[in-house]
Specification:
Elements (H helix, E strand, L loop, with lengths): L2 H11 L9 E6 L2 E8 L5 E3 L3 H8 L1
Antiparallel strand pairs: 1-2, 2-3
The structure holds zinc ion (ZN).
Zinc ion (ZN) binds next to loops.
Length: 58
Amino acid sequence: MNRKDVEKLREIWGENSCDHPSLEKDYYLGSATGDYVCKQCGRSGYGSDWPQKETKDK
Ligand SMILES: [Zn+2]
């Protein structure tokens, strides 16, 4: 997923809550950044398991 798509998703999804059901590798200038982007809300985090980590912190 490229940055433009991510920004669009964030715009559409806004501040709604999301449990990040589907992640995709984040690409910047054609190479993977190590981050994973939620295909639903456009949020990103490091590693494919960041939604789980985030849930634990709460
Ligand atoms: Zn999400």
